[in-house]
Amino acid sequence: YYRARIQAEGYYREEGLLRNVIMLSFRKQLPAVSRALASRQARAQGTKSGTWVEGGSKLDTSLVHSAVSPEPKTGAILTPLFLSTTFVQDSVEDYLAKGFSYSRTNNPTTSALEAKLAELENGYGACAFGTGMAATTSAISATMKTGDHCVISDCSYGGTNRSCREFFTPLGMEFDFVDFRDPENVKKAMKPNTKLIFSETPANPVLSLTDIEAISKIAKDAGAKHVVDATFATPVICRPLDHGADMVIQSLTKYYEGHNIMTGGAVISKDKEMAEKVKWVQNVHGNIINPFAAYIILQTSKTMGIRVRQQSKNAQAIADFLESHPKVTKVVYPGLASHPQKALADKYHRDGLHGGMLWFDIVGGADAGKKLMNVCQRPWSLCENLGATESIITACAVMTHANMLKEDRLKVGITDGFIRVSCGIEDSEDLIRALKVALDQI
Q: Contact 179/185 with Cβ under 8 angstroms?
């Protein structure tokens, strides 16, 4: 395992030796004795350009540098893009000695992204997929089989809901959709054959929150796994693996990529056993992320911390504006004192950041909501996706959650006029001015 991780981190085989290109992005995974020895040797020899200063790195530094090492032959500062289907072997006996054979299984660029994801989310290992939904279905496939039961949030991304109802249920799996705001609801829904608890926090799109530690304890006590879709939070705000979860799902399309360029998804596992199961599913399904998308996300994720802070700042300003507007009947944002789970938000969301997502209702109901979305001007864009640099308004009922059963959608509060907002990094005054002009027309 360490050999594979070391190769992905930038160690290359040359003339039968593993050459250390740059050291210790994964020093916490290396044996403590080796770390201590390396530190003593570094101190004895003095510091050197290209080696890392002792003491670990803060998150923003890790976002830039985790799993990224200068290319050994040229010194290129970025991880190379390896657009190669196959990798030549030196001999039959040395098959996989260089760590790679076929890009459906592993690719150097993709492996670098997966190593970065594992470090940022504080997991043992990560698998990167072509889309967020590929990650979601792979997490379920890795933990469930015919006859197994899952307790899942009654409000999640529409594609997640549909895959459980229309894809996995016909295969003989059982799903109970439960309100996760109260852990007792989850506990009551558990069965002897429950193998997975699937939560989403903050939930898409209603922004309800899950007590990750409480739900993880329920899973552990029952011998089940707890997977958390934390796409809305990102590791900048919350790392579920730090709170007892077994796996975390990220739609890399959203905040990690953040520029409306590529799609991607990831499952990051807390332990070796779970990581190996997900990797097996990835290889069997053949849904690994392509190297070009991995290369782009390796670059865009470097600015995720800066972007998430600006998006959170914009969302707070817009939520405050909407909450005071006479034509707005309801605003939900975890940073507002009026959020019904504000205490839970403050417990799990770091540094007072609550993300770039909010939603609101206006007077006039569904028809008025649809009209506002039709008349709201740029810099807002009416489209799907979220977490990007551009600010987006989404009509969830006909876009992201159209594949939910209507009665289920209405039950959790996603009306036909439900207005979901993804705040970008533009100036909040411009965004608020455009919203005000739109509201004046209602």
A: yes
